[in-house]
Amino acid sequence: MKFLKKVDWKDVGERALKTFVEAFVATAAASDFMNFGSGETLTSAVYTTAVAGIAAGVSAVWNMLVNVFKGGESDEP
After folding, report:
1. Spatial contact of 33 and 46, defined as CB atoms under 8 Å apart
2. Mean pLDDT over all residues of the chain?
3. By three-state DSSP, how is residue 18 classified?
């Protein structure tokens, strides 16, 4: 698993966390999550968190692959 040494894990983690927050906020705004009067608030919160988690996972895998194929170079100057 030599290719994993090429991955900039800090960059991958930061991007995944940013994607999680973005997806969570967007999904929460588009769902009933803000409607605290309904009895399904917990269910809606779980779905919102799951969608954000999936988006963050996809982001992490994508950025890991980009790092591996670029030789571990970062986008930052």
Report:
1. no
2. 80
3. helix
